[in-house]
């Protein structure tokens, strides 16, 4: 029996065949998918009342934040938000 390249029912014939990448399930190119997903993410964040801020920190501070977030089982963003709220409450009480 000859092997047909389009026949995928006989798996043992294709066990050593390597297919590159994951199957294409979206007609848009990857760059367009990323833009579309980012736009939707920003829209969801706005609906939840969230605003984006950018913060540049030293690598040692980033490492400390990552460790602390892992210890408290939080995301780094949630940890930073909690620390900022805690500092603001401390400022308000003085």
From TrEMBL:
Residues 1-29 are annotated as: Disordered. InterPro entries: CopG (IPR002145). Residues 1-19 have a biased composition (Basic and acidic residues). Residues 52-90 form the Ribbon-helix-helix protein CopG domain. NCBIfam families: PRK11675.1 (NF008671). This is LexA regulated protein. It comes from Oceanisphaera ostreae.
């Amino acid at each position: 029996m000859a092997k047909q390249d389009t026949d995928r029912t006989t798996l043992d014939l294709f066990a050593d065949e390597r297919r590159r990448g994951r199957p294409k399930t979206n007609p848009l190119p990857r760059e367009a998918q990323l833009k579309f997903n980012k736009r939707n993410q920003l829209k969801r964040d706005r609906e939840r009342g969230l605003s984006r801020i950018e913060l540049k920190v030293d690598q040692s501070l980033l490492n400390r934040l990552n460790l602390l977030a892992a210890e408290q089982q939080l995301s780094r963003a949630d940890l930073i938000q909690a620390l900022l709220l805690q500092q603001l409450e401390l400022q308000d009480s003085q």
